[in-house]
Queue: 2 jobs
Job 1
Amino acid sequence: MKGLEFVFLAAGSVFGAFLRYKITESPLLFNTLPLNVLIVNVIGAFILGVFIVLSQQWNLDGRYSLFAAVGFCGSLTTMSSFALDSSNLLENNQYGTLAANIVANISLSIGALIGGKSLMSALISN
């Protein structure tokens, strides 16, 4: 990795981590379902979907992928926190909430990614 590529990756990572911190610093629960991690995962997936289409349409340099996809979205979204939340729900025998957490994080994140791609494709084609 060259110096400028590292700067793009580092800058995206710092912005993504900061935004994740701000969104998750105050716990937000729906009953016992942790929403903060769900929110960052869905937002990150949507942004990644938008970026994929823009990157292909505008034929962006790979450094922008390091910044947006790997750095920003990689630091914004959080599989480890999702796993921890799920593990805590399992340990507390909250099986229904555990199932809802798993289904919501996976399906909404995939839906957000597809939605971001679809929205950007529609906007670009008009």
Note: The longest helix spans residues 95-125.
Job 2
Amino acid sequence: MSRAERAFRTPAIILKRRDFGEADRLLTVLTPDHGKLDVIAKGARKPTSTRTGHVELFTRSDLLIHKGRELDIVVQAEMSAPYLAVREDLTRGAYASYTAELADRFTGAGDADYDELFALMDATLDRLCTEDDPRLVVRYYEIHLLDAVGFRPELTECVVSREEIEAEDQFFSYGLGGVVRPGYAHAGEGVVAVSMPALKLLRHMQRSPFAQVKALKVAPKVHDEAERILIGYITFLLERRLQSVDFIRRLRQT
């Protein structure tokens, strides 16, 4: 849709929400056709506001947005998917916060085609509400988010020699963005070991629909390793630690 238009309707997932002024909220939202936007929900902090319950964190809402001089303004909001479980369960909420932080960090402001990422984020919030293993939901989200934003990890051939990976323990290079055969473990930046079971899990998640992935029974050790590889790669790409990761780790220790 052209920026010349004064108003537009769009589905939106609320990634961030901050107080703004005395009664407003500043929202960061992800939309399929308009990219990531910062918008003002005027009066949303007032108990009597009709928008208050429709712009909650980690929900999908249908918004009518008027374009403003500096910030766009939400003039109508209707929640279409509340995803209650991520606000009622602390652990699932922490994972939702992590997925939202990733979507925010990997996207820029302004018009962009984020249809694939929007659908992935929407499906992930639904899965976090319904699936028994939220860690598997998040690993699946990570690997497909990386694909959607142009950082798909190479998991089937060595990123140095371009030889097909054999069925043995390998290495993963954060700098080169993929698997490195043992003979080339000295190459690339941020090279870490990856076992064959963890690599098989990552490959399966990368190529398969979630309906097949959710049937897996993943050993805790393999879960931990897949998490280490993906979060390590994401941290390398973003060049920063993620606040939500630290919170999730603290939750596990309680």
Note: Strands lie at 7-20, 24-31, 35-41, 60-66, 72-81, 170-173, 178-180, 191-194.
